[in-house]
Write a structure and sequence with these properties.
By secondary structure, the protein is mainly alpha-helical. The chain has 2 domains: about 80 residues; about 55 residues, no CATH class. About 50% of the residues lie in helices and about 10% in strands. The strands form 2 sheets. A two-stranded antiparallel sheet has the order 1-2. A hairpin with a 2-residue loop joins strand 3 and strand 4. Helix 6 packs antiparallel against helix 7. It is elongated, with a radius of gyration of 24 Å.
Length: about 170
């Protein structure tokens, strides 16, 4: 069984209760791993503070702890993000994330992939391919731009490090 499946099993009753609460407010409840989201209109906005208290109470009753520092109300007109995805009108990659990934890919083309693998990923190509695929899933046009840059990277399949050691030559006395 995978971790997401276990998380879903553990949170089943929590999900049922919170989905019911959301329906009663004309809202939608969504959970991604341990990130909970309630989406709705003006009716939800009017009860947002009371909703936070009710959600925390239900979570505690179901055996979960709530991280109040990470709890926030994101209103219309401001950037709404959940699990590193901007969710205002439709799911999208944050502009800063897109720009950072584009810069990494461009630097891979210009200076080689090894120069950008600062975290030491064992399969950096797969790591970047996954990030590009994630961006494409959220925004096809932006993903296509990133994919074109990714396809221009020259991947060095051999060792990226050459070590040369010079030892001083000395003669030992007889």
């Amino acid at each position: 069984m995978t971790s997401p499946a276990l998380a879903n099993l553990c949170a089943f009753r929590l999900d049922l209760r919170l989905a019911g609460l959301a329906r009663s407010l004309g809202a939608t409840y969504t959970r991604y791993a341990d990130d909970l989201a309630f989406s709705g209109g003006d009716d939800l906005a009017r009860v947002a503070e009371r909703l936070e208290i009710r959600v925390a109470a239900i979570a505690i009753e179901e055996g979960f702890a709530v991280n109040l520092r990470k709890t926030r109300v994101m209103r219309r007109g401001a950037r709404q993000h959940l699990a590193a995805v901007v969710v205002n009108s439709h799911p999208n990659l944050a502009r800063t994330e897109f720009d950072a990934l584009k810069a990494v890919l461009t630097n891979c083309v210009r200076h080689g992939a090894a120069s950008q693998n600062r975290d030491g990923h064992s399969d950096y190509r797969a790591h970047l391919a996954g990030r590009v695929a994630h961006a494409a899933m959220l925004n096809a046009a932006r993903g296509a731009k990133l994919k074109r840059i990714f396809d221009r990277i020259v991947w060095n399949l051999g060792s990226s490090i050459t070590l040369e050691v010079s030892l001083p030559v000395t003669t030992l006395p007889p």
